[in-house]
Amino acid sequence: MIYVFLANGFEEIEALTPVDVLRRAGLTVQTVGIGEKVVTSSHKVPVTADITDAEMDLNGDLQAVILPGGMPGTKNLDASEAVTRALEFAKANDLFICAICAAPSVLGHKGLLAGKEAICFPGFESELTGATLSEKFVCRDGKVITGKGMGVATEFALEIASALAGDEAAEKVRAAIQFPR
Question: Which H or E element spans position 31?
């Protein structure tokens, strides 16, 4: 199970591209609405989450946690106790923790980037506490995957697919969606 957290003000492409790509790779993904089932994106698009944070079940089935960026979505993720619990569970159980755009700042605030190479949307670098800033658009350091922003959402999702379903599964999705290497 992979949880993609949706808080009011999330960036649509950064949230839904990983959902699509990971499901194409055969992985089980659930979107988790923070505080409610219908969550409104930063561009005023309402999205119905699969479950709410109250329905979230942190157990041995969880493989990864994904945080999309967007404003004020990132701030809402950072303030969410459910997101904090999920991140703590992922860290304690050596699961993948993934964030894109402004959302790697949440990881920095929670001490999850110490000693890690990471990337974020320009202007949020100072929020990546303890990280070494990467020059890559998508960066994987151990169990942490970060992406620079909306323009690399597909590559970010494919990197997560590779990590969780294997390189072959990710390459099949890449070929099916005609995404160049």
Answer: strand 29-33
